Amino acid sequence: MASRIGTLRPPVGAALTAALLGAMTLGTVAVVVAYAGAAMPGVADWAAVRFTVAQAALSAVISGLLAVPVARALARRRFAGRGALITLMGAPFLLPVIVAVLGLLAIFGRAGVMNDGLAALGLPRLSIYGLHGVVMAHVFLNLPLATRMLLLGWQAIPAERFRLAQSLDLTPGAQFRHLEWPMLRATLPGAMLTVFTICLASFAVALTLGGGPGATTVELAIYQALRFDFAPERAATLAVLQFVLCLTALGLGWSLIRDTGFGTGLGRRVEMPAPGGWRKGMDVAAIVLAAGFLMLPLGALVIRGLGGMGDLPGGMWAATLRSVLVALATTVLVTGAALVLALAAGRRAAGHRLFDAAATLPLAASSLVIGTGLFLALRGVASPSTLALPVTIAVNATLALPYAYRLLLPEARALHQGHDRLAQSLGLTRGARFRLVTLPCLARPLGFGAGITAALSMGDLGVITLFAAENNATLPLFIHGLMGSYRMEAAAATALILMGISFALFALFDWIGRHAAA
Amino acid sequence: MHGILSISDHPSHLERNMKTSILALGLATVATMATAQDKPVLTVLTYDSFTAEWGPGPAVEQAFEATCACDLQFVAAGDGAALLARIQMEGAASDADVVLGLDTNLTAAAAATGLFAPHGQGWKNALPVAFDDPVFLPYDWGWFAFVHDKAKLPAPPKSFEELAASDVKIIIQDPRSSTPGLGLLMWVKAAYGDRAGEIWEGLADNIVTVTPGWSEAYGLFLEGEADMVLSYTTSPAYHLIAEEDAGKAAAPFSEGHYLQVEGAGKLAATDQPALADAFLAFMGTEAFQAVIPTTNWMYPAVTPAAGLPAGFETLITPETSLLLSADEALAAREGALAEWQAALAR
Predict the structure, then answer these.
(1) Which of A101, A110, A229, B53 is the most exposed place for a label (fewest CB within 10 A)?
(2) Closest C-alpha among A415, A443, A422, A459 to residue A509
């Protein structure tokens, strides 16, 4: 029966895609392990490990704890602009890190607004370089993510529980103990661990705000081992350390996901009780402070950047074009690969567990670890600068794939369950089925995933630093160069352009997806 | 910028075929081929500040191109020490023909890579120390020093120990990527030997930040991020001559000052050996050396006919010059780096 064959056809495309992902992740790790034997970690390497874990832990705990009052306030208050604020909380995930750093420098940097204020008051200026700067940037980038995760937790508490609490006349304190605290105990560790994992692989923040051996992450140490010392064996040793760190965090994450045990409600939207008095004041303060912390740096960057728009640095448009091409190529690769894998996993094709694992592996990978592996494997094949853009595309695609895949998977499962039999009974050819059923049904997550991929790739400042020369810098690397020569106005103006293109690419792909949706 | 037939672009068969045909067809044909964009390109890899608008790059490029019928392209790749890593990373595939900006603390390591070819030049330098290296040719020199603003810091520390005991804030460069950063490491090592680690531990809380290169550090200093910056005894001349600002000074240290000799070398894999040789010869001429004091703000390797520019006589002259030989520096580097990292990682 032709239709049976259609279901059972071997997933060749998915197998190839999974093999490529395996090569990019496990393959590159195998290469660094092979080289790492030659150099044992030294004092400085362990210092980098300690700093990496310490800054990630601090960033995670601070982001998580600050997110509690903000998410709680957002969950129980209704005000004009609430929806916009929650949407805005999704933006830092797509914001190029270098743009965030420039924004923070505009407020907290030596020549920033805050230090000018301190100086005006006769107080000493504060330096943003070092541990506190790195942690501040990470909190800026991850507080919104943690807030959104906790907000989901609050919204998942069934409305019936709050009504029960009200009918029992529970005080806000008792309500917190009985309803909100169990939810937090279940969701907060996950949120913190997510932030911790993201910060473990931090490179661009440490590159721009880290200050010397006291503030070097393992990712930054890998970069320094290759670009400063040219010690490939040490870079390999550090890459192994980084991989072990990320894998451990990912393993912890797997075991930490717990059930809240609330049971389900009827899904009715009953407003959470919103106590007045000082509690209202605290909620207002939490929202105002969080919104200020997130928006002021970007506002300051916009003001500084607009001032520099009249004098855009030479070479900027070439770097922009390179970055856009890298982002588009990455998006095509990721969209195709995620679709192939999700469809195969969705119809439980032979080997679907392997495909799922292959699509999850990149979460334990990092830009500089893959980069080091590729550099060692491709040494002597071509000069690093020739490889810079292809390698950047490949690494960006690998790192963005898990997000695009996770977005598609539930829809691909539903598609298989909902439409497969109908499509078979109609005797649709594979091409017609793909065009008429698969694409329209998956258009929305495809577009959203493509948008995220394009924005992440556009703003990436990672592996490109290992390979690029002056004539093939991407836009984020170009901005880093401007910062290095203290052309801060030009850097701010260019950062505005980068931010605009990143968000525009996201919006474009998301729009295409929504309009093509069935 | 690279035409289809640009020689430097094609170190492959095309180029070899082209060279054969050039020989066969004779020089007359070359002359007709050598239109503006087909000029051979000499690529010189150097540090950032050399190619800056106010640096020696533009003047040197103009002067050399007037003599070479070539296109001299400077490629800035961070600070001096990162240049060596860059060349090692690219290996024989590098587009660079000449590397300009390595100092005596790196020349032994650089020569050991086997990527450089002997320069074969005969011109004599006028350095304060004997310098006769078969691979690297010196083009300028200077003493490292901490530079400060006389108004903001009227009584600067007079030694490393005084500096460590003070709360004066300094900005230094990473010794792995920057030649001044590495020079400071060697300075402390040459002055204190086995006590170097202890000195670094004392200095750790004076250091605001460690930058990858000199340009970043000096930029931060001028922005007011620190009281002193690691630079050269000659840096105040820039402010005096170019900005008519006599407010900057280099602090004399009682331990003596470490000497830096900056040099250039030809890559063995260059596809422009004749042009590279011509450039290294040009380095010893008046046209190159005369622009060094007021663009690179260093002492020229060959004193220009007119002497040093007015203003240089105001600079401090250290009583003691410290300098490890190239081999000593190579031997000391790893241990000194580990001491530095250990002290600053706390």
Answers:
(1) B53
(2) A443
In this structure, are residues B191 and B256 in contact, taking their beta carbons and an 8 Å threshold? Answer: yes
- Report the distance separating Cα B188 and Cα B179, nearest Å: 14
Q: How many helices (H) and strands (E) does chain B have?
A: 15, 12
- Secondary structure (3-state) at B208: strand
**Nearest-CA neighbor of A375 among A31, A105, A26?**
A31
User: What is the C-alpha end-to-end distance of chain A, expressed in Å?
Assistant: 29
CB distance from A511 to chain B under 8 Å? no
- Chain A residues whose CB is inside 8 A of the B340 CB are 213
Q: Phi/psi at B171 (nearest 5 deg)? A: -120, 130
Of B48, B94, B210, the CB nearest to A485: B48
Paired with B137 in beta bridges are B264
Instruction: State phi, psi for B48 to the nearest 5 degrees.
Output: -55, -50
Half-sphere exposure of A251 (CA within 13 A, CB side): 6
Q: How far apart are CA B160 and CA A478, in angstroms?
A: 37
How many angstroms separate the CA atoms of A372 and B252, rounded? 43
Which residue among B89, B176, B204 places its CB closest to the CB of A384? Answer: B89
DSSP letter string, A105-144: HHHHSTTSHHHHHHHHTTPPPPP--SHHHHHHHHHHHHHH
pLDDT at residue A268 in the model: 52
Q: How far is B301 from chain A (nearest CA, A)?
A: 27
Question: Which distant-in-sequence residues (6+ apart) come within 8 Å of A86 by Cβ?
Answer: A74, A148, A151
pLDDT digits (tens, 9 = 90+) for B23-82: 444 443 444 444 445 789 999 999 988 988 788 999 999 999 999 999 999 998 888 888
Whether B228 contacts B184, CB under 8 Å: no
User: Which of A110, A383, A485 is the closest to B90 by Cβ?
Assistant: A383
Q: Which are the contacts of A149, defined by CB distance < 8 A and separation ≥ 6?
A: A67, A187, A190, A191, A194
Element (H, E) at B75: strand B71-76
User: pLDDT means per 10 residues in chain A (518 residues)?
Assistant: 51 92 94 85 90 97 96 90 87 91 88 84 81 94 93 84 83 85 89 93 91 87 91 92 93 66 53 79 92 91 90 90 97 96 89 90 92 90 87 96 92 85 80 85 92 95 89 92 83 95 95 85
> Which residues in chain A have Cβ-Cβ distances shorter than 8 Å to B84?
230
How far apart CA A198 and CA A245 sit, in angstroms, is: 11
Chain A positions touching B210 (Cβ under 8 A) are 211-213
Question: What is the CB neighbour count within 10 angstroms for residue A366?
Answer: 26
Query: Using a CB-CB distance cutoff of 8 angstroms, which residues of chain A are in contact with residue B95?
Result: 383, 385
Let me know how long chain B is: 346
Q: Which residues of chain A neighbour B345 with C-beta distances below 8 Å?
A: 43-44, 47, 51, 213-214, 216
Distance in angstroms (rounded) separating the CA atoms of residues A171 and A159 = 17
User: pTM to 2 decimals?
Assistant: 0.86
Q: Give the relative orientation of helices B196-203 and B179-192 as an angle to the nearest 10 degrees.
A: 120
Residues A297/A140, Cβ–Cβ less than 8 Å:
yes
Q: Are A218 and B215 in contact (CB under 8 A)?
A: no
Task: For residue A380, give the nearest of B91, B95, B345 by CB distance.
Answer: B91
Q: Are strands B41-46 and B71-76 parallel, antiparallel or unpaired?
A: parallel
Interface test with B, best of A43, A229, A466 (most B CBs within 10 A): A229
Q: Does B213 touch chain A (CB under 8 A)?
A: yes
A–B: how many Cβ contacts below 8 A?
103
- Predicted-complex ipTM score: 0.79
Contact between residue A195 and residue A142 where contact means Cβ atoms under 8 Å apart: yes
Is the Cβ of A129 closer than 8 Å to some Cβ of chain B? Answer: yes
Q: What is the distance, to the nearest Å, from the Cα of residue B42 to the centroid of all Cα atoms in its chain?
A: 19
